[in-house]
UniProtKB/TrEMBL annotation:
One of its GO terms (molecular function) is nucleotidyltransferase activity. Residues 1-24, 59-99 are annotated as: Disordered. This is MobA-like NTP transferase domain-containing protein. InterPro entries: MobA-like_NTP_Trfase (IPR025877), Nucleotide-diphossugar_trans (IPR029044). It comes from Thermothielavioides terrestris (strain ATCC 38088 / NRRL 8126). Residues 66-93 have a biased composition (Pro residues). Keywords: Transferase. Residues 2-53, 107-182 form the MobA-like NTP transferase domain.
Length: 186
């Protein structure tokens, strides 16, 4: 599972991943719990944040002490990517949380948007298939996410909303789809 939480939140006026839910927890914590319930066997849940995203105390605990090296520019990494920072897992019945920092795929771009988070996951685990959830979908249920996973057909399967539109930020992305995204963004 991958939580995309690195957006600029310009329409919200404040970082949406830190917005408080009615129970007082930040929105990203609500979404991490949703992913944990949807994927009870996942050993790790990844959260992708932009380099300049504000961090609360928990997210700071995930931050690496130094920035990882820039991603390779060749189509295939020649060395293993840096391991994501992760928090110790005091509860073996819950997945650990690992932080991925977005990097602009094209330094000339003003904003890389959600593609940066998807590509950060692809760089970290190029062979993985990812259940992707954007932070700003708090009304989804674990059952909806499990049904999306069950319906996965490579290379990508998106949730179809009530209006019939595909939601690429609530989707299962396979390596082939992420490779194509990387080619298009580069």
């Amino acid at each position: 599972p991958l939580l995309l939480a690195g957006g600029k939140s310009t329409r919200m006026g404040s970082p949406k991943h830190l917005l408080p839910m009615p129970d007082g927890r930040p929105l990203y914590q609500h979404q991490l719990d949703l992913l944990a319930r949807a994927c009870p066997d996942a050993p790790t849940i990844y959260i992708s944040l932009a380099q300049d995203s504000p961090l609360d105390r928990f997210l700071q605990s995930l931050t690496p002490s130094q920035d990882p090296p820039s991603p390779p520019t060749s189509p295939r990494p020649t060395t293993a990517p840096p391991a994501p920072a992760s928090a110790p897992n005091p509860n073996p019945n819950k997945p650990s949380i690992a932080l991925l920092r977005d990097a602009r795929p094209n330094p000339a771009a003003r904003s890389a948007g959600p593609a940066a988070g998807l590509l950060a996951a692809f760089r970290a685990r190029p062979a993985a298939t990812w259940l992707v959830l954007a932070v700003d979908y708090p009304l989804l249920t674990p059952g909806m996410l499990r049904a999306l996973c069950a319906a996965y057909a490579p290379p990508v399967t998106c949730l179809r909303n009530a209006d019939g539109f595909c939601e690429p930020l609530v989707a299962v992305w396979g390596p082939a789809a992420l490779g194509e995204l990387r080619r298009r963004v580069e």
